[in-house]
Amino acid sequence: MGKTLFDKIWQKHVVAGEDGQVQLLYVDLHLVHEVTSPQPFESLRENHRTVRRPDLTFATMDHNVPTKNIFDIKDKMSKLQMKTLEKMLEIST
User: Fold this and answer.
1) Domain named Aconitase/3-isopropylmalate dehydratase large subunit alpha/beta/alpha: which ranges (predicted)?
2) Are the C-beta atoms of residues 67 and 20 closer than 8 Å to each other?
3) Residue ranges of the domains in the chain?
4) Structure pTM?
5) In the prediction, which pLDDT does 14 show?
């Protein structure tokens, strides 16, 4: 039987390990958003590390943006999360 698309993509990204074992994968694209992404950026900063491939890291603010009047964010937590991601992106570049 042929390999699935998932299997083909997975196998192209294996760095170490055999089939049926734990495998180390190379992630070649990072998609981040405003809700949970600031925590890893903070961890990088605390450990004096940077994003290895900022050219392959793309951020979008898509969870907290209101569907009407997208520039009028009334929810304080949403606004804070968006500003935090913006700040973390400035620090990491």
Assistant:
1) 7-86
2) no
3) 32-93
4) 0.59
5) 93
